[in-house]
Every structure is written in structure tokens, then in C-alpha cells.
Amino acid sequence: MTTETREFQAEARQLLELMVHSIYSTKEIFIRELISNASDALDKRRYAALTDDSLKADDPHIAIEADKDARTLTVRDNGIGMTRDEVVELIGTIARSGTAETLRRLRESKESAELIGQFGVGFYSVFMVAEKVTLLTRKAGEETGVRWESNGDGTYTIETTGDAPEGTSVTVHLRPVDDENGLHDYTEEWRIREVVKRFSDFISFPIRMGDATLNSMKALWARPRSEVADEEYREFYRHISHDWTDPLDIIQIRAEGTFEYEALLFIPARAPHDLFQRDARGGLQLYVKRVFILEDSRELLPGYLRFVQGVVDAADLPLNISREILQQDRHIQLIRRRLAKKVLATVKTLMKNEPEKYRTFWREFGAVVKEGLLDGTDSQKAILDIASFATTASFASPAADEATSGDEATSGDTTAPDDTTASDATTAPDGSSAPDGSTAADEVTAGNGLTTLADYVARMKEGQDKIYFMAGDSRAQVQNSPHLEAFKAQGYEVLLLTDPVDEIWVDAVRSYDDKEFQSVARGAVDLPSEEKPSEERTGAYAPVLSWLNEVLGEVKEVRLTTRLTVSPACLVSDMSGLTPALEKMYRAMGQDVPSAQRILELNPEHPLVSGLKAAYEERADDPALAETAELLYGTALLAEGGDLTDPARFATLLADRLSKTL
Ligand code: ADP
After folding, report:
1. Which residues is 479 bridged to in the sheet?
2. CA 272 to chain CA mean position, Å
3. Which of 40, 103, 168 most suits a substitution to test ligand 1, by most atoms within 8 Å of the C-beta?
4. Could you identify which of 125, 424, 464, 556 might form a hypothetical disulfide with 597, taking C-beta atoms 3.0 to 4.6 angstroms apart as the criterion?
């Protein structure tokens, strides 16, 4: 057999280098990583055997062998194994799309050594302790095996071999012991036992060393909350999620009755980088009576909760259930609805009791959760209740505090009887209690300058019956938009919505607590305390307005407004028309929509507007007037972050005018 020497892919090389030079003190995690991979491989083989009986493993297990004299540690499994191509693909490169990002953070971080433990570096973690690593593998059902070897210097060797048993073994040739730098003697049996117990007790296959089985194999979700240490949940979470940050919260559900299932869910503390990518991983693991069936089962939770991690173990499903059947199964749909409800309720509890965690949740996942408002499901209300938004209001005023201080705080466990949830007993997995450094304002609002809808409604002014919002691309853009001027001047609070999904859901949801959502950039302003432009004035402006309408072909209408107090002009959309953001979004989605025709609104109090009127009355034929109109329109467009059709022309006109003022 020929031995081939190959180079690791560039990213993999960088990661290797980090590992080789790591001074991270918890080096024993490499054992956990190897066991985790072995366990996954056994799961995959068991699943494959459901449809091909010949692939079934005798006595599926993981074996650990230590050789003190040779200074090697071997982790062996009789799982699915790998073909030669798979070894090259899976071990020689880093496929996980998050790794580039991880690497960047690791390299940028000054204390990268400490950070390593927080990331799922997987197989490569062996190079923290190894001089050389030998991997021997044979894919279940195949004839030939593969031998792979590397000392972590950027290249590896690979050859096919006849004498590999089915499954995979990884032999780590350990570097000399260096206790001072956290490199302990990993051939010592007591140490290995301790590491397995601490990190891998829940693994559902026996982990053997000699005749002894080191792990209890108890399914974590089947054990009462009180008997499971936080550390165990954390390790389990890492195992299933590959997220090395501790979860924000843990939800345990046991449903009894005609359709029994148990679920253990984790709400992550960090959004995966691929949250908005179509092909992103997501979904829960499905077990049937403790047997792993499917990973990434998206059927078990609605899409807007795709970031939730965990396990569902259903008692009454057939072992060979397929994804197609899952999608139609009535029980699965019930589970899905139930889990979604539970997750939302848990977030609501966080909001009340652990505002800091809630804020993290909303910052990381709010934009996704809001997608749930689009499909018209029964969760709409629950989602609106846990949503929070940036706003023009500041909460420093005591009045705002008073308005909503009737918080009942912890209202005890109100879950259904079959819902032996532990979420109320939820301690942070790190054992910390709720940080209560929040200010009064934080408690009544969502904090960080965000407000809940309930708090917004509680602060609504006398006579106000709408929830005002301004939607756009960025906080800065909407916050300073001319559309807000009158609202600000008269003390009407406006929600500032900047997630792409926002404009769509406000359209779909329409109202909260019987108060309609109203865009401040759509239709005419109708602030309760607002006077309309007087008829006299409108009449006097009629000629110049209709002239403007003619000159500015792009706009549908030109009219006076009272919404502006500072700016001369702004653009608004028709009540029924698309806003520019919506138009852009539909276009991006490949839909052909008519381009939104806008209305130019003018502030008659502004000298530019009154001056233009006077000038028009005096010398309607002056070509410079049309240019002024163009400039006026252009500035309105720019103020809302829009795109000029002819920016160069605009710049020339403006420079021309400016030079005349000097
Ligand atoms: P991760 O486990 O996070 O995907 P690793 O670097 O640990 O990343 O492993 C990369 C891939 O190599 C795994 O996803 C798996 O497909 C394959 N692999 C690793 N160890 C084994 C094993 N013991 N048996 C079969 N495949 C394995």
C-alpha cells in the first residue's frame, strides 16, 4: 500500500498550530472530544442498521486503553467508521462553517489559551497533548481500512490497510508529562475515570477500561432534575450542540398519558453564526425509548425556535420512523406546539426573574423569534409578550416607572400537571443566582433602552390609540428620521424597528392589545393632538404643490404636513403602498413588485418651503426653481437613507448652489 503525505487545509493548519502551542490548562478535554466523536459514530451506525441489518454492531461500545510504557492512550469505538475519502474530508479539513470565525476570535483574543476550552475544537484538541496521533478506521460494511497519522506539523500521512477492525480507534502518543503546564499523565487510570465521569457520564454507550464500565449511561432527560448536577447538563449540552458557551436556560418536560415523551431543551446564550442561513444545522435530537433515531429533527420545533437545542425521547414512535413520516405525524405536531409554548413561557419567566439573561436572549435571538409572528399561529400573543423594541422614549422619568410597576414577580409554578418542568427551579447552569443589579427602569421595561409592548401601551398618551413605529435599516437612520419630528416634539413614543423581519410582521399582526400598529412613515400623520394644515394654507399652496408634482416625476403626490418641525421635507408611503424597505425585501426574495410611489410632504413652516412658494409665485419660469425642487426632494430621500437616482447630478447641483452662498 502506498503512503501518501498530504497537507492540512489552511484553516485546519491554523487550528492545529493553536493546539500544539496551547497553554490551556484543562488539556484533558481531548478525552471528552474523542469520546464524543466515538459516541456520535456509534449513533450513526445504529441508525444505519435500522435499514440495513448487516451493519448492526455486536456490543456497541467505546474502549479506552492506556499504555504507561509506550505513553499512549487509545480511544476505540465500533461505530460507523470512515472511508479514505471521509478521513481526508472530515479530519484533514475543517468543514464546520463556524470555525473560521472561532479561529479569528481565538487569534485576536489575548487570552486565547483560556478561550480554547470554550470552543468546540473537536478532534484537533488531541494535539494539545500529543506528539503524534494515529487514527485507524474502517467504515462499517467496507473491506479496507485507513491509517492516518500526523504529528500536528501541518501534514499528515494516509494509507489504506487491510487489518483495521470496523469502527475507529485514535491512538494518542502523549508528550512527556509537564504538570506545571497542565499536561498531566493521561495514562493513569484514576485520572481517566475521573475525566470520563465528569465529562461523559451520560454517554449512552458503555465506556470501558479493562473490565470496568466507567459511565452510568443514564439518559439525562430521564433523571429527576434534583439528581443531576449542573455540570452534567452543561457537558451534555456541549455534546449535542457543539457550543462551548453555557446555555442560558434548561427546560425539562415529561408528558404522560396517551402519548408519552420526555424532552430536555437548552436555550443557548449565543446565536450560531449561521442562524439565518438556509442550510444551517438546527433542530432537536429525536430518541425513541432511549435509542437515538435522528439528529437535526426540525419537525420538533417551529422554525422560529430553530436555535433551541436538545433531545426529545418519545415512547410510542416506531424505531424506523423516517423524516417524511415525522412531518405528518399528528403526535409530533402536538409535541412541537407544546415545546414551543414551553420555550416561550420560559423566556417570559426569564424576563421577569432574570432580566439580564432575558436581554441576552433577545439580543441573540429576537430577530429569529419574530419570524414566528408571520405564520399566524397561536403563538403570536406569546411572542409579542416576550418581544422588546428600541424606542424613542427614555425611561428615566419616574412616571414611566410608576406606570407599570405592578409586576407580580415570581408567580410560582403554573405548569400543567403533566408538565413536570424544572424550568422554575432553573438555576443557571453555572449555579449563579439571578443577578439583581438591575435598576427600577430595567425592571419595568426590557432594559437596555428597549421596551416591551405592554410597557409601551402603559405609557401611551391620553387619546393615543395606536402603537407608532418607524422601520428602517439601522438604528441611527430611523432614530434621526424626519418622520419622527412631530412625534418627538409632542412626546409620542415611537418604536424603532430595524430588523428586516419587522416591517413584515407589523403588517401581519396588525395590532397588540387592540391597539393598531401604525408606521410613522406611511399615510398622513393623525396625531390626536395635532392640527391639520389649515384649509386656507392648503389653498394658498395648491399651485406650487401641483407644479412640484409635475417637476418631480418620481413622486405620486406633494402635500403639506404638520409632522415636520425641523426638516423642510420628508417622503412617506401611501397607507396601502409598500415602503421602500418592504419593496427592497420582496425584490431580494425574487418577487416582482411595482416600485413604491412615494408622497413628498412639505413643512410650510420651513423657510425653504415658504421661500420656494414665494419664488414660484413671482417667477414660475425660472429654471433654477426646478433645481431647487430637485434638491429638496433629494435631501428628503437622503434623510431617510434612500438612494438618489442620479447622485452625481445631485452633488453638482448642490455644489453649484453652495458656491453661490459664499
Ligand atoms: P465534530 O465532531 O465537532 O464534527 P471533529 O473535528 O471532532 O468535529 O470531527 C470531525 C468529523 O470527523 C466528525 O464530524 C465525524 O464525521 C468524523 N469523526 C471524528 N471521529 C470519528 C469517529 N470516532 N468515528 C467516525 N467518524 C469520526
Report:
1. none
2. 6
3. 40
4. 556
